[in-house]
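hey team, just a heads up i'm posting the complex here instead of the shared drive bc the drive is being weird again. everything in one block, sequence lines first with there labels, then the predicted structure for the whole assembly after. its two chains so it's a bit long, scroll down
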Amino acid sequence: MAPCWKDGLFFMHEMSIAQSLLDIIKDEMRKHDATALRSVRLAIGQMSAIVPESLSFCFEVMTSGTDLEGAQLNMDLIPLRGLCRECGLEFEIEGYAFECPHCNSHSIETTAGQGLSIVEIEVD
Amino acid sequence: MKISVVKNILEANDRIARENRAIFDEKDLLVFNLMSSPGAGKTALLEKTISALKKDLSIGVIEGDIQSSQDAERIAETGIPVVQINTGGACHLDGNMIRDTFQEFDFDSMELLVVENVGNLVCPAEFKVGEDFKAMILSVTEGDDKPSKYPLMFRESKVLLINKIDLIPYLDCSVERIREEALKVNPRLAIFEVSCKTGEGLEAWYAWLRNEVTNRRSARD
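-- predicted structure starts here --
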């Protein structure tokens, strides 16, 4: 087996996402001269390909033994919402059906629930 | 102390993807990101497509796999430039990995670059590499429930190839249901039913792809 398999974890894309998340957190902490991380709040879109438990697990693994160990990761799941380009109705998309419940148009812009963002961090 | 951050977690990758895209734009190169589960037929589709189009189009391929260079060797048999990326465990390609291959290609004499992603129906949809569009393959042996189980990839793709249709007589898989479910998630999705084994349906896909390359060029003129 190649050495890159040594920890057996890298097959999860939540690992790359946890790494990107940590890069942003460390950057923000430096900017604010913070030394300890208490908690992080994320907004996870319903249609993002993230399994929250996996992300939690990766975050824990990657912070253990570092200054950031023990920080709490809070995740808000954001329901999928769309805006009808025909009639302007904003609605919750159920069952991933991109069809306007009012005018049946298929021209729907996703307004929420697809992204993956960091909202807030609490530091000392 | 609470600090409001409000940042896309994948912004670092998105930024690199935008930089890649700027390079592709400058070179007038059409780039698509080909995704599917393992074994759905990505490399087989590319072999057929390259053989059919290489006399009219100059094509290059970036092959993404966790390990091995078997796919790149298959593509190299067609006589076009190919670079293998081994992700060493990662389940998807990202903007950075793609950028690292640029020195291996001569983009000035290339019109179409295909990025064959790691076989996986989930992760590759989250990571942009700078492509013009995403294309995906679903083989009928995977079942007709996949669009509703993995909606993100179907939503993000511009074109879906339903492959291995020669096997339909032996399966409980409804192509109609795949179409319906996929169009529910993405009403603008272009869909082709093909068999890379028999060649059925591939002409329509080639015509669609040629058209994309032409449109790309005329959009720049």
